[in-house]
Amino acid sequence: MGLVRHRRQLNLRLPLPEPSNLLPPFPDPSASSVDTSPAISASDLESLHVLGHGNGGTVYKVRHRRTSAVYALKVVRSGSDASLRRGARREVEVLRRAAGSPNVIRCHGSFEEPCGDEAILLEYMDLGTLESVLRNYGPFGESNLANVARQVLNGLDQLHSRKIIHRDIKPSNLLVNSKMEIKIADFGVSKIMCRMLEACDSYVGTCAYMSPERFDPDSNGGSYNGYAGDVWGLGLTLLELYLGYFPFLDPGQRPDWASLVCAICFGEMPSLPELASGEFRSFVECCLQKESGKRWTVSQLLTHPFVCKDPVSGA
């Protein structure tokens, strides 16, 4: 496997949250409309505080000076780096293609700041990421997980139908608001596909959430199925939310390249406690098949009994 020459490009950061209180149940997502508000410029916005960092950018909570509407502003410090500028503009293009999906973060516009940085104005999700929810409230129960899975699958279904793969599905890239709506965010490494299978010519994204074929494309004919890679990321995310720690490592274990590659490519699927239902076990197994061709597609997963339960009664 051609691994060593690429490893410095990868993000090995893993969340290791501590349990706390219980999270309220998730309702079904409500529909959202495409944004039609007037164009907004940097001078219209007041910065409140930093929400987070990632993929070459910083995300701020901002307020519109005239309307008091609150947004998230992602600023990519592109400077003279043409690749970062292209990445930011590609992210805007992806978000425009995905406009109207209730489970994809809404883009309210983009502009270039006076210093040359690229800025993307996004809807504000007041509860933050699923990573922070896990850290603050502890592991999720199956009812909440089924609703998370259903909403993320709906978002992926919209993206994949428009030939968009995310390539970095993980808890910190899934946002939640006080209505308990889940939305896919951070499209900095996403790709608009020209065909179903494309050469695995890059290792962008977060190493820990990459599917086996991302590390070893030679075993898959020199290419990988990006759609199936998103399904792998969803399955791993659900396991992490259920267990409370990253599934392929022991609780508290520090991640390193060798242990991650061995676990993801050659290790057994992480075991679940006996109290886990057969439906949840089956759903995770459908997502985490080592061979990408054996993984269920998003359309198939939307018919799985685990996500077809009534969100209120659980039946």
UniProtKB/TrEMBL annotation:
Residues 45-307 form the Protein kinase domain. Pfam families: Pkinase. ATP binds at residue 74. Residues 16-28 have a biased composition (Pro residues). Keywords: ATP-binding, Kinase, Nucleotide-binding, Serine/threonine-protein kinase, Transferase. CDD domains: PKc_MAPKK_plant_like (cd06623). SMART domains: S_TKc (SM00220). Residues 16-38 are annotated as: Disordered. GO terms for biological process: response to other organism; response to stress. Its EC number is 2.7.12.2. InterPro entries: Kinase-like_dom_sf (IPR011009), Prot_kinase_dom (IPR000719), Protein_kinase_ATP_BS (IPR017441), Ser/Thr_kinase_AS (IPR008271). GO terms for molecular function: ATP binding; MAP kinase kinase activity; protein serine/threonine kinase activity. It catalyses: L-seryl-[protein] + ATP = O-phospho-L-seryl-[protein] + ADP + H(+); L-tyrosyl-[protein] + ATP = O-phospho-L-tyrosyl-[protein] + ADP + H(+); L-threonyl-[protein] + ATP = O-phospho-L-threonyl-[protein] + ADP + H(+). Belongs to the protein kinase superfamily. STE Ser/Thr protein kinase family. MAP kinase kinase subfamily. This is mitogen-activated protein kinase kinase. The gene is LOC115734839.
